[in-house]
Amino acid sequence: xxxxxxxxxxxxxxxxxxxxxxxxxxxxxxxxxxxxxxxxxxxxxxxxxxxxxxxxxxxxxxxxxxxxxxxxxxxxxxxxxxxxxxxxxxxxxxxxxxxxxxxxxxxxxxxxxxxxxxxxxxxxxxxxxxxxxxxxxxxxxxxxxxxxxxxxxxxxxxxxxxxxxxxxxxxxxxxxxxxxxxxxxxxxxxxxxxxxxxxxxxxxxxxxxxxxxxxxxxxxxxxxxxxxxxxxxxxxxxxx
Length: 240
Description:
It contains seven helices and no strands. The protein is mainly α.
């Protein structure tokens, strides 16, 4: 009984075949709706881009027609777009007839005498003279308080610079400068004055000067030059 009850409960509430089938059908319908909406949106964007490109090209053509308006045909002379050997004029000729010539922006150049001519009196406007009275001079009185005299303050402010010995002298002493010059001279010159002659017989007859270790009274060590094993005859078993 428990086995049948568990099977019935699972098929009805957990793994319901019909509910799962209905859910998958709803998902497929929703996917189809979303796909159609995306297709419509893509077509709308494509049409909008095409319309913008077409408007841009039309504006460019109108600008070029206004810029080349001087190529328009006249009553006496035909233009380059209105050839007499053609049955109908070129579409550019019709566009030139509809468009207006491009106006050049004139730069406003201010005359250096504009401000002088602007204030000149005319016959309608008589010259005006300034009637304002000048202000009285400000009395330079000593301010109240423990302040120093103005002349003393100005004298201290504009006095010449008197640097101390530490400021006026160089950072490096003469001894340091001499040492620096000596180091530069040693770095620039050669270490020794012996001339190096690699491909000559100059060094052939010179005597070899041995080092201090090899020129001692004990002579030259044979280990490492003539043999590589220590010889101890006292430890020999035989005389050989």
